[in-house]
Amino acid sequence: MESHAGLAATPRALPYYVAFSQLLGLIAVATTGAWLGLYRGGIAWQGVLQFNVHPLCMVIGLIFLQGDALLVYRVFRNETKRTTKVLHGLLHVFAFIIALVGLVAVFDYHRKKGYADLYSLHSWCGILAFVLYFVQWLVGFGFFLFPGASFSLRSRYRPQHIFFGATIFLLAVGTALLGLKEALLFKLGRLGRSWNWVNSPQLC
After folding, report:
1. Could you read off the pLDDT tens digit of each residue along the chain, which spans 204 residues?
2. Given this structure, which CATH class describes domain 14-192?
3. Cβ-based neighbours of 91, under 8 Å, separated by 6 or more
4. What is d(CA 130, CA 103) in angstroms, rounded to the nearest whole number?
5. CA-CA distances (angstroms) from residue 120 to 33, 100, 149, 183, 192?
6. Most buried residue, 19, 78, 91, 124, by most Cβ within 10 Å?
7. Residues forming a β-bridge with 4
8. 53 and 102 in contact (C-beta within 8 Å)?
9. Which long-range contacts (CB under 8 A, 24 or more apart) does 139-147 make?
10. Sequence-separated (6 or more) residues with CB below 8 Å from residue 49
C-alpha cells in the first residue's frame, strides 16, 4: 500500500486559504491580461506586441502555476505520495515551459529591435530566478521522482528543497513587481520627456 502525502489532519481553515490564494492568482493573471489588452495593444508573436507575451507568461508560469505547485502537498494531504509527486512535478513542468516561452519572447523581441539584453535589475533578477527554478526542478526530479535516490538522501535534502522552492517563488514575485515598475517608469519617461521631467533633480 502506498503511503499518503500527509498524516496530519487537514486544518479547518485550509480550504478557505487555498480558495483565497487561487482567487488572488486568477486575479493577477486576469489583470495582467487586461492591462496588456487594454493599455498595451494586446498580445502577438510578431511585431511590437511580441514583448507583451513576456509578462503574461511569467505571471502564469512563475507565479500562478509555481504557487499552485507549492500548495500541492498542503492541499492533497490524503492522496498517495506518488500522486502528489506527479502532480507537483507536472505543475512545475507546465510552469517552466510557459516561463520559457515568455523568456524566448523577450529575447527575440530585443534581437529584432536591436535592443540590449540584461540591461536592468529586473532582467538580472529574472534570469537568476529562471536559472534557479530550472536547477531546483532538475535537482528535485533527481531526488524525488527518479527512482535511484535513497530514502535517507531524500530526507536530508527535503528541507533545502522546500526552503529554496519558497525562496525562488518570492524572488519571482519580486522580479515581477520590478518589471511592472520598470514598465511604468518607461511610460512616464516617454510622457515626461517633452518637458524634461525625467531629468528633474528630484529623481536623481
Report:
1. 445 554 456 677 888 898 999 999 999 999 999 999 998 899 999 888 999 999 999 999 999 999 999 999 888 887 888 888 889 989 999 999 999 999 999 999 999 988 888 888 999 999 999 999 999 999 888 887 776 667 787 888 889 999 999 999 999 999 999 998 888 887 766 655 544 433 433 333
2. mainly alpha
3. 65, 66, 68, 69, 72
4. 9
5. 23, 19, 40, 11, 21
6. 91
7. 80
8. yes
9. 140/89, 140/92, 141/89, 144/85, 145/85, 145/86, 145/89
10. 40, 41, 42, 43
CA angle, 91 as apex, 89 and 94 as ends, to 5°? Answer: 110
* pTM for the full predicted model: 0.82
Do residues 69 and 95 touch, judged by C-beta distance below 8 A? yes
Rounded CA gap, 171 and 175, in Å? 6
d(CA 199, CA 192): 9
DSSP string, 90-130: HHHHHHHHHHHHHHHHHHHHHHHHTPPSS-SHHHHHHHHHH
Using the CB atoms, write b or e for 50-81: b if 16+ within 10 Å.
bbbbbbbbbbbbbbbbbbbbbbbbebbbebee
